[in-house]
Q: What sequence folds into this?
């Protein structure tokens, strides 16, 4: 069964490798050699080209590649009222490599406000042609998880209940603002659910005084509250990511520890799930996906390297997953974006597009 609405049988997570034109323009802007308007003009042209490339690969969905961002999440947080970015003591530790030392903290009442990424989406929509433009933003749980209580001003939010209420309201307002801007396909990117699957991360959560199972229930409530009143013609997906920085990762472990709460109670329209290697576990947790209610977009094609997967092997894994969830509730995508940060993963642009074409070719054969 083909799908003519989001998520599509062949879909993408969002980010693409930054072209040299963007890298050079960003450096020139940082050095004061070009203006913000000139930088945006370079970005506009690069985004127009990446949209054309996605369509040429057979996709019916397009993103802006996250070309205007340095990070998949911090740039969005920067645009929220009540949030401040700061230079932290150390970066985020991945498997053998560390990111730049940035963090965010809540210093005032959370509000969505007049967010600059609304205009970013409007531009994408204006050039998307017959393809479905998809906007990607971080999930609300991401803003809370990494810093927790210590990065939330206690004079602003003495009690975390009020903070979580405002967190949900902020994303509720974001959802409706993007809808008003013409968005009908929105993706929430979320590393936290994967951390809650990891024995090591769960240990660290307990050591800082939190209960990982209680956090799962809190985050499910926050997301569901944000989704209240969602327009029927707006598709919202949740991408669960185990970390993606220069082809490295953070967490490992199957979805079983969170499956019943995540798949059984979070009211998104689609789950984008990483399943590109053994770190992701087996398909058994998919038994909690509600029949007929939601789509499961399986990330069976890795973005961590350029080696192409065997199409027959991917088809076999799709058939295996169908033992736990109806094949007509399954779609296919790369496991993550190709450049969750501006540094990008360790593969070439040509290998990137070969991966995307592999997704569309397999989807066409299976469905």
A:
């Amino acid at each position: 069964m083909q799908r003519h609405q989001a998520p599509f049988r062949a879909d993408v997570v969002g980010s693409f490798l930054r072209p040299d034109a963007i890298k050079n323009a960003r450096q020139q802007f940082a050095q004061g050699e070009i203006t913000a308007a000139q930088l945006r003009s370079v970005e506009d042209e690069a985004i127009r080209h990446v949209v054309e490339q996605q369509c040429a690969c057979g996709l019916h969905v397009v993103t802006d590649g996250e070309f205007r961002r340095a990070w998949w999440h911090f740039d969005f947080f920067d645009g929220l009222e009540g949030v401040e970015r700061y230079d932290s003591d150390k970066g985020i530790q991945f498997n053998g490599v560390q990111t730049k030392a940035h963090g965010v903290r809540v210093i005032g009442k959370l509000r969505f406000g007049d967010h600059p990424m609304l205009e970013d989406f409007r531009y994408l929509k204006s050039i998307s042609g017959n393809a479905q433009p998809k906007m990607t933003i971080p999930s609300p749980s991401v803003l809370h998880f990494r810093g927790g209580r210590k990065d939330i001003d206690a004079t602003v939010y003495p009690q975390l209940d009020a903070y979580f209420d405002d967190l949900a309201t902020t994303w509720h307002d974001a959802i409706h603002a993007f809808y008003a801007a013409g968005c009908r396909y929105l993706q929430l990117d979320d590393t936290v659910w994967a951390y809650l699957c990891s024995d090591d991360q769960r240990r660290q959560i307990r050591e800082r005084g939190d209960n990982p199972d209680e956090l799962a229930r809190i985050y499910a409530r926050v997301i569901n509250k944000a989704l209240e009143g969602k327009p029927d013609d707006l598709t919202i997906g949740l991408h669960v990511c185990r970390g993606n920085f220069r082809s490295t990762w953070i967490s490992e472990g199957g979805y079983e520890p969170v499956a019943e709460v995540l798949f059984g109670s979070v009211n998104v329209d689609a789950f984008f799930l990483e399943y590109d290697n053994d770190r992701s576990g087996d398909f058994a947790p998919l038994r909690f996906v509600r029949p007929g209610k939601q789509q499961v977009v399986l990330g069976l094609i890795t973005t961590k390297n350029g080696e192409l997967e065997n199409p027959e092997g991917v088809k076999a894994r799709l058939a295996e997953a169908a033992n736990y969830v109806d094949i007509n509730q399954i779609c296919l995508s790369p496991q993550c974006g190709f450049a969750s940060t501006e540094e990008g993963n360790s593969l070439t642009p040509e290998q990137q597009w070969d991966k995307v074409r592999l997704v569309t070719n397999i989807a066409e054969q299976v469905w």
Observations:
- The mean pLDDT is 92.
- The CA atoms of residues 110 and 181 lie 21 Å apart.
- The chain is about 40% helix and 15% strand.
